[in-house]
Write a structure and sequence with these properties.
Layout: H1 8-20, E1 25-37, E2 43-52, E3 57-61, H2 71-74, H3 86-103, E4 107-111, H4 128-139, H5 144-158, E5 162-164, E6 173-177, E7 180-186, H6 193-207, E8 215-222, H7 226-229, H8 234-240, E9 242-247, E10 253-255
Parallel strand pairs: 3-4, 7-8, 8-9
Antiparallel strand pairs: 1-2, 2-3, 5-6, 6-7, 9-10
């Protein structure tokens, strides 16, 4: 077993593999991402935590020492090849990754302990269900899900709804209109339309904490996923107060009939 296999970093990468449906190249090195020149006159390649070639995605899991001084990790009494102690070099190299990875056409996402279920020391509690839900949201940044969310939010405003901060941090979108309340789950384009639709229904079921008839639940989908979502019969959706909304490729929104 490699030293990193039991780490929080390895745990996060494994969950990302499950969400993305692709196995990462852990500690991958690119020829163009290099550290400072050492005493040998050579530059070492800087690893990234995980690279998914099929998604053209890099994920960096940055623990607390990446954002604040931690003497145990910083080794302030020792200078690195960069002429600074390890904590300053870490910040320097993180900034280099932040600049170089997008510049080479890859998507970079940074995950921190605070994004997941972690204690005050930044150690993950390994609540896989909650962490996967959080990672789905994080990995969707800059994706088609953002497009669908933005289009639906704009449509809500034209229909007299006011988007508000969700009561549940896992909810994608929430809005109010007089006495009405709408709780929404949003999905973008995906290669696993049926599976993602089933997951979305399950996520909505867990949000159903309000039995008032004025609260509605919305499943917001791109056109490509509508047929998969319509496999749940209309009368079931009516009983559950779930409405389907379609967002077309040109960002037009329409509520689908429930009968």
């Amino acid at each position: 077993m490699r030293k990193r296999d039991g780490s929080d970093e390895a745990y996060v990468i494994d969950l990302c593999n499950k969400v993305l449906g692709e196995t990462a190249q852990a500690q991958h090195k690119f020829d163009w991402l290099q550290g400072d020149m050492g005493t040998t006159g050579r530059r070492v390649k800087l690893p990234v935590d995980a690279f998914w070639q099929g998604h053209q995605l890099v994920v960096e899991y940055r623990e607390l020492q990446h954002d604040r001084p931690v003497p145990h990790f910083d080794k302030q009494d020792r200078l690195t090849v960069s002429g600074v102690h390890r904590g300053e070099q870490r910040a320097l190299y993180d900034a280099r990754r932040d600049a170089e990875i997008p510049a080479h056409g890859l998507r970079l996402l940074v995950v921190r302990p605070a994004d997941l279920d972690a204690d005050s020391r930044g150690r993950l509690r390994r609540n896989a269900e909650a962490d996967i839900a959080a990672l789905r949201r994080i990995l969707a940044r800059g994706s088609d899900e953002d497009r669908v969310t933005d289009a639906f939010r704009a449509w809500l405003l034209t229909e007299g709804w006011t988007p508000v901060s969700p009561a549940d941090r896992w909810t994608d979108i929430e809005a109010v209109r007089q006495s009405e309340r709408l709780v929404g789950e949003v999905k973008g384009r995906t290669s696993e339309k049926g599976i993602d639709a089933d997951i979305a229904y399950g996520q909505l079921l867990r949000r159903m904490t309000d039995d008032r008839p004025t609260t509605r639940y919305a499943l917001v989908l791109p056109t490509s996923s509508v047929k998969a979502a319509e496999r749940v019969p209309p009368y079931i959706r009516r009983l559950l107060r779930i409405d389907l909304y379609e967002v077309s490729d040109d960002n037009h929104v329409r509520q689908l009939p429930s009968s």
